[in-house]
Amino acid sequence: MDSRTVALIRTTFKAVAAEEGGSETLARSFYSILFTDYPGVRDFFPAAMDAQRDRLVHAISYALDRLEEPDKLLPFLAQLGRDHRKYGVQPAHYVAVANSLKSAIRGCVGDEMWTDEVAAAWDEGLANISGAMIGAADKETSPAAWTATVVECREVLRNLSIVRVQLEHPMEYAAGQYISVQVPSRPRMWRYLSPANPANSNGEIEFHIRSVLGGWVSPAIVSHTTVGDQWLLGAPLGGLGVPRNTKRKMLMIGCGTGIAPLRAQIMAMAQRRVNPKVHLFVGGHHPCDLYDLQVLSQLAVANKWLTVTPVTEHEENPWWYYDSGEPQVELPGLEPRMTGQIGKVVAAFGPWADRDVQIVGSPSMVQTTKFRLMAAGTQAKSIRHDPLF
Ligand SMILES: Cc1cc2nc3c(=O)[nH]c(=O)nc-3n(C[C@H](O)[C@H](O)[C@H](O)COP(=O)(O)OP(=O)(O)OC[C@H]3O[C@@H](n4cnc5c(N)ncnc54)[C@H](O)[C@@H]3O)c2cc1C
Ligand code: HEM
Hints:
GO terms for molecular function: 2 iron, 2 sulfur cluster binding; heme binding; nitric oxide dioxygenase NAD(P)H activity; oxygen binding; oxygen carrier activity. Belongs to the globin family. In the C-terminal section; belongs to the flavoprotein pyridine nucleotide cytochrome reductase family. The structure is a single chain. This protein has helices spanning about 5-20, 20-35, 55-65, 70-85, 90-110, 115-140, 220-225, 260-270, 295-300, 340-345, 365-375; strands at about 145-155, 160-165, 180, 190-195, 205-210, 230-235, 250-255, 280-285, 305-310, 340, 355-360, 385. The protein is an alpha/beta fold and about 400 residues long. The chain is globular, with a radius of gyration of 22 Å. About 35% of the residues are buried.
């Protein structure tokens, strides 16, 4: 695409974002046009859409903003296209989405700004995005969705469960990727979860799920999952992972269940003969939140290239935490626990200039840690996190 076309799309987007609550208005208007003009499409979406409303529109704007970087954009769109097969999306639906988005944008910026040239630029941009997603979906031979049976559900903290599922057919995902999951009690409410183990021929996946206060899906998973439940999983997504034969050292920072995709990568690396050095910082609010230290300790003992430093914001456990009174066993292989905000603690070590960095956790933890590291001198291009947008 030429730079004029891209500039026209960006300018219209900026005009929308410049308005107070512009992105929110755009998302609302987009869905209202889509569901009115194409009523059949409504059934793909969950009944309540408040929490998720901007995900689709956000992703399209992310893609439109990167039309000049096909190397990064096309793999991202290909993954999304393969994943969207789980909804049963057909090429005609892409036309519906594109038309509705154009009408919504036009409504936001006004007819004066929406010239023929601007409209043509949007047609081209959206056709490129749809084409990449449809093309990847057409080529894919793996299932549109995988059925998985829950074989174990263990509450490891009062708001965090480990769920192991058995896939009907094994899935090939790269350690570090994430998967869109639908549980039976929350139809059409797909949520991303990150496997905590590498892909295997047995088709076993372990997920770590934290119950988010007021959330639609995670509290239901943590409280109501039982052995035998049938889950549905979409195609793998995301770009985390450590390439084979890389010499570049790694810095991994994970908070809460953010440890899952990092642990999966370390387990995958443990099966290789040679690895670069990896320093993993694993964070939580209180010492009792560090639910997976036993496994990390075993990995650190067995793999000399791995250093694991636990970090907690508070020195002590909260008053309501039940302490069994048994003496705490020192876990071998781990560095001494540090106290402080994780981004601050890691950035205090210096710019980590020789490292590739991965950050995993809540959106606010990822952003804060990224800014702290950049302020300490880490280059933005060395830092990776998911999702991209
Ligand atoms: C790439 C990726 C991988 C993920 N992997 C995992 C995983 O392995 N395990 C896991 O437990 N979760 C994971 N999540 C988060 C998960 O997908 C859901 O967003 C989360 O479980 C909340 O869903 P919900 O339906 O309960 O909340 P919603 O009903 O979607 O949201 C309710 C409220 O909680 C807020 N909220 C949503 N997510 C979070 C969060 N993570 N922290 C704080 N507030 C939040 C929302 O902004 C909203 O205000 C991942 C997310 C991404 C983007
Ligand atoms: C035009 C290109 C498109 C892009 C870039 C895109 C991107 C996304 C993204 C990133 C999400 C959130 C993550 C997910 O659940 O997978 C999403 C959700 C979704 N998309 Fe798309 N999408 C596109 C087109 C379509 C089309 C044509 C349809 C079919 C009508 C569709 C249906 C959905 C549905 C049903 C959801 C779930 C929404 C929710 O959970 O609230 N998408 N899309």
